[in-house]
Backbone:
C-alpha cells in the first residue's frame, strides 16, 4: 500500500498521476460519534491544544502534518477507517474560514463531506455548507434559530459536538486574518495542514478491521490522549527526541510493562504510574511539590519553560530503558527481602524491607500496579535502585542498607517540603558513598551509621552480626541502644536475639531490665516511658530507638548489663532473667530506702500497663503514680501501688473499685488528672484507701454499723486518729524513701478490712 501526502481540500483534486480520486468523504455508519466537541474537562484540553496547533499552522505559515488517514475507497467515496475525528474538525475549520473569508460561494471539494452514522448528522452537514450567518452572529444560537434546525438534534451527540467545536474555532480564530488563513489552508502547492492518505482499496470495509483499529466507537483512553499531548509538548521542548519516545512507548517500553498489566490486558495505567513516579522525582529536584494533574506535571517538568527539560527527559528515557529485557522481579528479589536471614547465615546481602502487611519487595511492580503514588520511603528506595542501575555504583548493598536505616529512623524528616534535599542525599549516598555529607535525614542516625563504619573498619568480622541486629524488627537499623564496642558487640547481639525471641518473656524482661538500671525515658515533666509487658511494638517506638545515642545512655547501660547476664547464664533465658532480678532485689538494703524502682521490680502488677506509660504529679516518680493502658489520661488507668496492694492482699477484684466502678480485672481503675486523689473504695462498706508520699490514708465508712470493725482494724495496724498508716522513711540524696514495704503493709491492712466485713 502506498500513501500520498495531501490536504483536506486537496483530497478532491488529483495531485499525482497515480493518486486516487476522491469525490466525497463519508463517515461510515459503523464509526463512532464525533468526539472532539464533547463537553468535559479532558476533551476541552485536547480541543484547545489541537486548535492551537491548527491556528499556528494557518496564521504563521509553519505547516504541520496530521500523520496518517486510513480509508477505504469505494467508487470515489473515501470511507475513513482511522482519522474520522481529524477530518471532521478540518471540515468545520474549512467552513468557518470560508465563511469569515467570504469564500462560501466558491464550489470546492471540501463541502462534499457527510456522516452516515445518523441521518440527522448527514442533514446537518448539508445544511451547514449552505449556511451563511451574519459576521456578528453567535454561531450556536444562530444555527439553533434556523428553520431547518430540528429540535431533536439537541440530543444528537455528533451535532452537539460540532456546535461546540464551531464555537471553539470561532473563539480561537476571531481575531485572525481569516482571508490569509483560508489561502494557506487551501494552497494546492504548500498547504498549511496536510496528512498522509493511505487508501486500503484491497482490504474492503469490514467490522473486524474497525474493531481492531478504532476500538469500535470507544473514546480514546486517558493514556492515548496523554501520549498524543506529551508528544506535542516534546515537539516544543525536545523535538529531536519525539520520534525516539514514540517508538519506545509503543514498543520496548510496552513490552517491559506487559508482565505488570492489569485484568484489562493493557499497560496504559502502569505506564502512567511509573511515568508519574519518575516525573515526581524530577519535579522535586526542581523544587516541587509535584502537582496531582499529570498533564500539568508533564508541562512543568518537560515543557519548554523548564531549562532542565532535556535533562529530565533523558532521565525519564533512561529510567525506562534500564528495565528493557530485564527480569525485573529477580532484580528486586535479589536486592530486598521481607524477613531477616537466619542468624546462622553468613549471607546478609539482602536489605530487609519493613513494610506494611501485604507489601512486596518488587518496588517497580508496586509503583506500576498501585492505585496511589508510592509512599515516601519506597519512593526513595526505588530511586536508589534506579541510581544504582544508571550509574553502576559500587558497594550498593551496603549503601542501600544504610539508606534503609536512615529512612526508617526519619519518619519526622520525610516531609513533602524536604523531598528535594532527601533525593539529593540519596544520590550522595548511593552514587558517591558520601555518608558524611548527608544532611536531611535524621542526624542522630547519620552519626550512628558513621560509628558503625568506624567499628567495622577495626573489626570487619562483626559485619554479619551488625547486619543481623539491624534487621531485627524492633531495631530496624538503629543500634543506638548498643555499645559499639568490638570486644562485647557479638555476644550482646546474640543475647538480644534470644531476649526478644518470645513475647512471653516481656513481663519478666520489664522487671529484669529495670533491675539492671533506670532505663526509663522521660516523655516530659508529667510522663515517663517503660517497656510494655504485653505490647512489643512499644519497645521499638519508645525504648530502643527514636532518640540520639546520648538520650539513650540509660537504656544502653541497663541493656548492656542485662545482655551480659543473659550471655553468662546457666539454663534458659527466662530463668536467667528471674535470677538476675532476684539477685538485685536481695542486694537492696531497706535501711538505704526503697524507691519507686524497687517497687516496680518487686511487683509485676505494677508493670502491667499495656502502654508502659506512667504519669506523676510531683515532677519526679515517687509513690504517687498513674499506670496507663492507653497513651492519654482521658482513658481509664490504674494506680500501680494500689493495684499491687490489692493483688498482694489476695482479696477478690470485686471487693474494691476505683472512682468509677469497673468490672475489669486488675483494678481498681480511675479517671481524671494525675493531680487528683485516687481512693480505692471497699465495696462492702464504702471505706477508702489512697497512697500518698509518706503514708497510706484511709476514710472511714459512712454507715454506723461499720464503725466498730473499722476502728478495731485500724488500731491493730497502727493507724492513728488522723487515719494515716505512716510509712517509715529515710532521706537519701534529698529524697524521702520508704524503709518498710508499703505494699505489704497496705495488703495486710486491706485484707483485714475486707475480712472484717468492710
Residues:
Amino acid at each position: 500500500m502506498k500513501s500520498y501526502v495531501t490536504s483536506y481540500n486537496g483530497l478532491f483534486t488529483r495531485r499525482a498521476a497515480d493518486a486516487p480520486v476522491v469525490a466525497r468523504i463519508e463517515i461510515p455508519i459503523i464509526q463512532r460519534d464525533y468526539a472532539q466537541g464533547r463537553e468535559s474537562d479532558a476533551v476541552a484540553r485536547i480541543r484547545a491544544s489541537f486548535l492551537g496547533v491548527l491556528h499556528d499552522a494557518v496564521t504563521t505559515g509553519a505547516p504541520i502534518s496530521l500523520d496518517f488517514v486510513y480509508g477505504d475507497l469505494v467508487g470515489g467515496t473515501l470511507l475513513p477507517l482511522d482519522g474520522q475525528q481529524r477530518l471532521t474538525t478540518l471540515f468545520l475549520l474549512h467552513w468557518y474560514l470560508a465563511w469569515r473569508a467570504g469564500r462560501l460561494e466558491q464550489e470546492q471539494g471540501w463541502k462534499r463531506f457527510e456522516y452516515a452514522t445518523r441521518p440527522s448528522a448527514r442533514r446537518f452537514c448539508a445544511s451547514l455548507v449552505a449556511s451563511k450567518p451574519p459576521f456578528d452572529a453567535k454561531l450556536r444560537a444562530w444555527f439553533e434559530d434556523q428553520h431547518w434546525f430540528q429540535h431533536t438534534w439537541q440530543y444528537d451527540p455528533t451535532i452537539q459536538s460540532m456546535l461546540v467545536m464551531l464555537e471553539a474555532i470561532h473563539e480561537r480564530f476571531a481575531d485572525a486574518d481569516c482571508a490569509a488563513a483560508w489561502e494557506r489552508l487551501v494552497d494546492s502547492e504548500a498547504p498549511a495542514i496536510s496528512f498522509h492518505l493511505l487508501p486500503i482499496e484491497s482490504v474492503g470495509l469490514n467490522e473486524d478491521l474497525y474493531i481492531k483499529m478504532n476500538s469500535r466507537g470507544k473514546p480514546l483512553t486517558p493514556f492515548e490522549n496523554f501520549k498524543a499531548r506529551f508528544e506535542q509538548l516534546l515537539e516544543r521542548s525536545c523535538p529531536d527526541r519525539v520520534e525516539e519516545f514514540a517508538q519506545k512507548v509503543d514498543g520496548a517500553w510496552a513490552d517491559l510493562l506487559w508482565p505488570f498489566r492489569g485484568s484489562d490486558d493493557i499497560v496504559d495505567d502502569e505506564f502512567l504510574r511509573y511515568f508519574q513516579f519518575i516525573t515526581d522525582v524530577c519535579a522535586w529536584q526542581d523544587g516541587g511539590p509535584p502537582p496531582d494533574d499529570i498533564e500539568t506535571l508533564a508541562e512543568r517538568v518537560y515543557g519548554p519553560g523548564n531549562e532542565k527539560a532535556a535533562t529530565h527527559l533523558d532521565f525519564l528515557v533512561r529510567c525506562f530503558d534500564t528495565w528493557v529485557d530485564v527480569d525485573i522481579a529477580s532484580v528486586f528479589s535479589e536486592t530486598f527481602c521481607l524477613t531477616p536471614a537466619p542468624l546462622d547465615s553468613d549471607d546478609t546481602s539482602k536489605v530487609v524491607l519493613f513494610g506494611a502487611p501485604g507489601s512486596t519487595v518488587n518496588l517497580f511492580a508496586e509503583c506500576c500496579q498501585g492505585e496511589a503514588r508510592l509512599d515516601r520511603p519506597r519512593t526513595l528506595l526505588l530511586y536508589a535502585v534506579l541510581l544504582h542501575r544508571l550509574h553502576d555504583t559500587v558497594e550498593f548493598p551496603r549503601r542501600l542498607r544504610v539508606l534503609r536505616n536512615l529512612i526508617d529512623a526519619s519518619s519526622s524528616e520525610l516531609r513533602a517540603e524536604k523531598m528535594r534535599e532527601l533525593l539529593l542525599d540519596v544520590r550522595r549516598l548511593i552514587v558517591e558513598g558520601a555518608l558524611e555529607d548527608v544532611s536531611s535525614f535524621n542526624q542522630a542516625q547519620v552519626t550512628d551509621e558513621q560509628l558503625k563504619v568506624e567499628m567495622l573498619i577495626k573489626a570487619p568480622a562483626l559485619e554479619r552480626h551488625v547486619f543481623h541486629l539491624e534487621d531485627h524488627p524492633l531495631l530496624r537499623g538503629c543500634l543506638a541502644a548498643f555499645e559499639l564496642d568490638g570486644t562485647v558487640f557479638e555476644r550482646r547481639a546474640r543475647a538480644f536475639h534470644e531476649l526478644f525471641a518470645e513475647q512471653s518473656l516481656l513481663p519478666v524482661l520489664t522487671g529484669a531490665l529495670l533491675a539492671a538500671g533506670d532505663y526509663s525515658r522521660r516523655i516530659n515533666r508529667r510522663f515517663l516511658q517503660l517497656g510494655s509487658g504485653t505490647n512489643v511494638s512499644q519497645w521499638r517506638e519508645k525504648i530502643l530507638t527514636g532518640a540520639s545515642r546520648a538520650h539513650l545512655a540509660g537504656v544502653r547501660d541497663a541493656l548492656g548489663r542485662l545482655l551480659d547476664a543473659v550471655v553468662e547464664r546457666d539454663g534458659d533465658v527466662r530463668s536467667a532473667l528471674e535470677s538476675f532480678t532476684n539477685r538485685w532485689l536481695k542486694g537492696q538494703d531497706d535501711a538505704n530506702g526503697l524507691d519507686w524502682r524497687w517497687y516496680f521490680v518487686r511487683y509485676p502488677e505494677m508493670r502491667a500497663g499495656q502502654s508502659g506509660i506512667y504519669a506523676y504529679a510531683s515532677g519526679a516518680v515517687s509513690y504517687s503514680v498513674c499506670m496507663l493502658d492507653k497513651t492519654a489520661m482521658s482513658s481509664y488507668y490504674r494506680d500501680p501501688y494500689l493495684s499491687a496492694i490489692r493483688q498482694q492482699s489476695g482479696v477478690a477484684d470485686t471487693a474494691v473499685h476505683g472512682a468509677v466502678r469497673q468490672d475489669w480485672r486488675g483494678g481498681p481503675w480511675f479517671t481524671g488528672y494525675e493531680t487528683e486523689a485516687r481512693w480505692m473504695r471497699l465495696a462492702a462498706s464504702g471505706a477508702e484507701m489512697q497512697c500518698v508520699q509518706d503514708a497510706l490514708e484511709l476514710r472511714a465508712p459512712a454507715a454506723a454499723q461499720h464503725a466498730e470493725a473499722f476502728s478495731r482494724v485500724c488500731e491493730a495496724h497502727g493507724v492513728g486518729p488522723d487515719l494515716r498508716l505512716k510509712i517509715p522513711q529515710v532521706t537519701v540524696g534529698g529524697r524521702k524513701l520508704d524503709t518498710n514495704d508499703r505494699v505489704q503493709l497496705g495488703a495486710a491492712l486491706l485484707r483485714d478490712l475486707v475480712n472484717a466485713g468492710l
Q: What stands out?
A: Residues 596-755 form one domain.
